[in-house]
Predict the structure.
Amino acid sequence: MSTRRLTALDRWIDTAQRALETVAGDPPAVRRNPADDHAEIVLDEAERRHAAGLMRINHVGEVCAQALYVGQASVARDARTREHLLHAAQEETDHLAWCADRLRELDSRPSLLNPLWFAGAYAIGLAAGLRGDGWNLGFVVETERQVEAHIDEHLESLPPADARSRAILEVMKEDEIRHAHNAEAAGARVLPAPIPQAMALASKLMKAVAYRV
């Protein structure tokens, strides 16, 4: 039996569904939550608020990752590039679910601005994808490198007793490193200098806002 070829309308419908699931839904993880291997430790109020702020930033990062990858995949020219992006997006869905679970455990919530974060990241993903697959993959590499760097910052900043958040972030970091390596192997181009700086500036603003809102 032949497989029906997806039309542009099919892809836009799929994108809309992913957007609703990411921003308003609660998409389940495929993989087991790494936090399950660690007992919950009661944090004091300041530690709990700080851990929640950091995990809200990471949750926003995963919302943006979904939007970026789906936006890029929707205009990717090569089927292998599209498959690469959508596979990475699936692993980012695991991260999204794990961060949401941890926020609930910390008696907190995701960012109230998630629809805005998704829309902005999706637009950036579309723009990157329209430049061509090499630039598309180059954007993946730079995105993952910057995410890896901010996860390192959070691992340093988390309360020492918060082993559950730490376990989630360590697996997320491993996945981000692998996504970057896979994109490089698939033919990623090196982004010109102004783009990584602009991405870092936007990320800094997002982290400052998402920590609180």
About this structure: The first helix runs from residue 8 to 23. Helices lie at 8-23, 45-75, 79-105, 114-130, 133-157, 163-185, 194-210. The chain has one domain: 8-22+61-210.
